[in-house]
Structures are given as C-alpha cells and as structure tokens.
C-alpha cells in the first residue's frame, strides 16, 4: 500500500468514448502528478498540480484534460483518444512540488480500440 | 534537454551474484538522482535518493553512487535474490521544482 490509489486499474475504450481516470492520495501531500508510461519508453511527465493549481503541462494534447478539485484527488478526463494513447497512466504525489521522493500509485492500464 | 540512458535494457543473473546497474545523464546540472523499482503491473517504489552534493547513498543491500562530472550513477545490489527481479529505473531531477527525467529502465531477472 503506497498511499496513492488509482481507479480503474484497467480500462478499454473506443476512440469516440469519454472516460475518466481517478487518483486519490492519503498522505497529506500537496503536489500531484500524472505520468504516461508506454512500452519500452521512459516515463513522460504530463501534468503537475501544486496546492490544486496546475503548474506544468508538458505539451499534452487537449484530448487529455486534468482536474484537481482538492489536494487529495486528481482526475484525468479522456476523450477522442488515439491508439497511440494506449499506455500505463501513473499518478504520483509528493509533499510539495520539488520535494522528493514522489510516491506512485499502481497505475491504470489503458487500451484504445 | 536532459537525456537519461540505462544500459543494459535487460539483465539476468544467478541468485547470490552482485548486480550492477548503470545510469548515465547528459546534463551534469542535476538537483538529485533517484533509483526506483517497478514490479510488473505496479507503480514505482523509490529505493534511493542521492542529492547533488552527495556521492552515494546506502540502504541495506543497495548502494547507489553519483558522479556528476562524468554524468553517471550506479546502483549496486549485493547478494541478489529472486525477489530482486523487477525493472529498475533511474530519474534525474532537472530543476528545483522536482521535474524528473526518467531512463527507460533495466529489467532484472534473478534465477534461483
């Protein structure tokens, strides 16, 4: 148990569907992150939130829309995705942005048909 | 742009042998370097964090060294066990805000 919970663990969706990924942390942290992990490629940082404010958008396509209603919850809304978006999406949190280490959830395995 | 490389991509050793995992980075101006472990279907677990002012960190059978001038970090795992089988990733922190640049990882298999 890492203190960071992601749901669902697996998701299969068509390119025209709309779905959301959820992340919840029970560590009292103020910073939360979304990463994408594709097969055989390094983890790519997507978004960073610090005290509910987005502080980093790493040139992510607009078909990915993050939402951070409070410091404990982070969502990633998905719509009109492409097959190349199939990947493991990992959420992480840290005490504050810049404070290491980051604590990771187990991820959502996303498959786009 | 910081690039982080891990070689080899995969490694298989018999139980009891020492493991040596390599990580190289192109920009020596890092704030810290971390080593993570990832089990299949799981997230990342932080193993060791080395600040830029440090040369090494140790935790149990794990020892990580950092040489900023040569752009290298090495993770040593002593007396490997089958439970050490996993993918090991290194990540360099490239700014004071903690942005991490990851390597692609080394997949380790320890055979009984």
Structural class of chain A: mainly beta
String of helices and strands of chain A: EEEEEEEEEEE
- Termini separation of chain B comes to 41 Å
Radius of gyration of chain B, in Å, reads: 13 Å
Strand content of chain B: over 45%
Biggest interface: chains and residue counts? Answer: A-B, 27 and 24 residues
- Count of DSSP helices of chain B? 0
Mind describing the biggest β-sheet of chain A? Answer: 7 strands, mixed
Largest sheet of chain B: 6 strands, mixed
Instruction: State the low-pLDDT regions of chain B, or none.
Output: none
Helix coverage percent of residues of chain A? under 10%
User: What is Rg of chain A?
Assistant: 13 Å
Distance between the termini of chain A: 31 Å
Give the low-pLDDT segments of chain A: none
In short:
Chain A is mostly beta strands and 113 residues long. Chain A has no helices and 11 strands. Chain B starts with a strand and ends with a strand.
3D architecture notes:
The complex is a heterodimer of chains A (113) and B (112). Chain A has strands at residues 4-7, 10-13, 18-25, 31-37, 44-50, 53-57, 64-70, 73-79, 87-94, 103-104, 108-112. Chain A is mainly beta and 113 residues long. In chain A, the strands form two sheets. In chain A, strands 2, 4, 5, 6, 9, 10 and 11 form a seven-stranded mixed beta sheet that branches. Chain A has a four-stranded antiparallel beta sheet with strand order 1-3-8-7, with no helix packed on it. With 112 residues, chain B is mainly beta. Chain B is 0% helix and 57% strand. In chain B, the strands form two sheets. In chain B, strands 2, 4, 5, 9, 10 and 11 form a six-stranded mixed beta sheet that branches. In chain B, strands 1-3-8-7-6 form a five-stranded antiparallel beta sheet, with no helix packed on it. The termini of chain B are far apart. In chain B, 35% of the residues are buried. Chains A and B meet through strand 9 and strand 10 of A and strand 4, strand 5, strand 9 and strand 10 of B.
């Amino acid at each position: 148990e890492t203190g960071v919970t992601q749901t669902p663990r697996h998701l299969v969706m068509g390119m025209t569907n709309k779905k959301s990924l959820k992340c919840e942390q029970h560590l009292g942290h103020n910073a939360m992150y979304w990463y994408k992990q594709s097969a055989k490629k390094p983890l790519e940082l997507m978004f960073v939130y610090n005290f509910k404010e987005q502080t980093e958008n790493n040139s992510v396509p607009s078909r990915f829309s993050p939402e951070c209603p409070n410091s404990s919850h982070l969502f990633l809304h998905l719509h009109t995705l492409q097959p190349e978006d199939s990947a493991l999406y990992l959420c992480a949190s840290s005490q504050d942005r810049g404070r290491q280490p980051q604590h990771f959830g187990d991820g959502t395995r996303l498959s786009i048909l | 742009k910081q690039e982080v490389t891990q070689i080899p991509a995969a490694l298989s050793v018999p139980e009891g042998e020492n493991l040596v995992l390599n990580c190289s980075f192109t920009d020596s101006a890092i704030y810290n370097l971390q080593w993570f472990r990832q089990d299949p279907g799981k997230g990342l677990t932080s193993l060791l964090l080395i600040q830029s002012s440090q040369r090494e960190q140790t935790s149990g059978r794990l020892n990580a060294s950092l040489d900023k001038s040569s752009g290298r970090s090495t993770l040593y795992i002593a007396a490997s066990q089958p439970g050490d089988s996993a993918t090991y990733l290194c990540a360099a922190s490239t700014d004071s805000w903690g942005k991490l640049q990851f390597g692609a990882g080394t997949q380790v298999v320890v055979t009984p």
